[in-house]
Amino acid sequence: MYPNGLPQFATPEQRAQFNVDEGYKPHMSISDLRRNLHETVADYNGRLRNTLLRIAKMHEVSAEKKDHIVLVVGHASTVDLAAGHLVKNSRESTEHDLTSSYKKIPVGSTLVLERVQGRRGWTPNLYAIPPVTYTGLSNQFSAAFVLRDAPVVKE
Known about the structure:
Elements: H1 12-16, H2 30-35, H3 41-60, H4 76-87, H5 95-104, E1 113-114, E2 123-124, E3 133-134, E4 137-138, H6 143-146
Antiparallel strand pairs: 1-2, 3-4
Helix pairs in contact: 3-4
């Protein structure tokens, strides 16, 4: 995977410039993830929802009165589910959404979600980080897809 060896990671001194939480503990262990290799779409939606809501909750209850920046790195489906669960009141992704999300959410896409005082939930800021285009490729995602409403369920 890495023909020239593993990449060099930031040193503790370099990370200190960015206020990295050195005491971070993962929400799920690698062994927990390996146990769920054959999870269903509903399981995947639930795992991502619980993880994203846990991350959001950890920073909402902070006693510190400063802006919090949380970087979540993931696949296209992570961008889709973050918008679905934090912006769209728990819109889940279907199997079709998950298998085709890479067509609507290119590699390197960035979704910025902000907590706005006086508003419920999280608000997307589509202009916080402009998309990058190079040699005809762009990391701009389809806002219509990512910010879509949940499908109406007919009873």
